């Protein structure tokens, strides 16, 4: 085709397209995309700086939205989609981006109003939950913690004792906070304490791990003999739910030890955090468990070479761990590194020579972490070897480097974000032969 005829063709194509293409309807076409992929962060109380719940919220920012959506900066999604697929992939398809662009370019009209979806979101925000109903159990810190506006980051642990009428099957659980913008990430361990001789209240309720009284943490060791569950929150993470016959049992009595990593704040602000738990009557046939591999978990000492990242170097590390339990089915993978992280890959190899792809983050970004949920139970057979490969950039070329000039960085076990971690958490159940045919119904 000559350049002239191709230009003509292009013009015809464009004008034909514009004429045939109706501007999408906001409430029918645009809002469902925004609600599913943006509102988990862009609603009151969540991590993003403004809500995108109503027409007005979105209409005010169409110029920005066009920019961040077409550049794929939003929604943030860092996993390599060519490596494997996840149920909670929030990245937009080409056709979804096309719908948003066509609506914005068409003048972003309001069209016929239908407030049903946003009223439902508001009702959840008002009920203090992102889940579809009110929580059966709400546990909060006793007093709000004041995050000083001194620009320093902090790791603070909180003890939240509980003693409920009876143990209960858990359908869903979520981390809650009056202000998630202060929180970089949070982890919680649920420790059952059935021995009535152990007092749940005779110890402190807060320990600042970055402060001079960090050792008071040892007062809580008496609660830590058992752990029922370990969960967490990172920006964008919402409710954690389990398939109908899976879950775990909330013990009758015990403590939650909640670790909150507060980012640097420039103003004094109060933080009041806790968890909501949703119970179900149906029996739990398959118990959900969590395992942590690497820094702060199993195999920390086997990271090779030892996790020391020398100044001005880009370094790679690996860890291999065999699954010596029976076959398991994985529900999700949760990779974790800090600011020097560059790439993270995890897979498993079997004796038969197969490779099971777990997760690959080609361009790690500390700000956008995720709990990656599988679509179907992923078989990790007995004897399979889990491989974790991670690389770190401790040079001045890394704009996230917390040290200038670069310094030696290690995994010191205190989880400070200017030190490093190489961790993979896996949530799993024991394998059931029917798992080959099961598709998870994530919330
Ligand atoms: C995982 C949480 C998360 C999701 C999902 C998400 N955002 Fe964001 N968004 C943020 C945070 C946090 C910021 C502020 C920090 C920043 O701009 O990097 C932000 C910033 C923005 C900005 C302002 C950018 C700027 O340059 O100031 C726009 C516009 C935006 N988001 C639109 C969207 C849209 C549209 C979607 C869905 C298609 C979306 N976001 C999904 C967390 C999220």
TrEMBL record:
Keyword Protease part of the UniProt annotation: no
Highest taxon of source: Bacteria
Signal peptide region: 1-20
Molecular functions (GO terms): copper ion binding; oxidoreductase activity, acting on paired donors, with incorporation or reduction of molecular oxygen, reduced ascorbate as one donor, and incorporation of one atom of oxygen
UniProt-listed InterPro entries: Cu2_ascorb_mOase-like_C, Cu2_ascorb_mOase_N_sf, PHM/PNGase_F_dom_sf
Entry annotated with the keyword Disulfide bond: yes
Keywords: Disulfide bond, Signal
Coiled-coil segments: none
Name used for this protein in its record: Cytochrome c
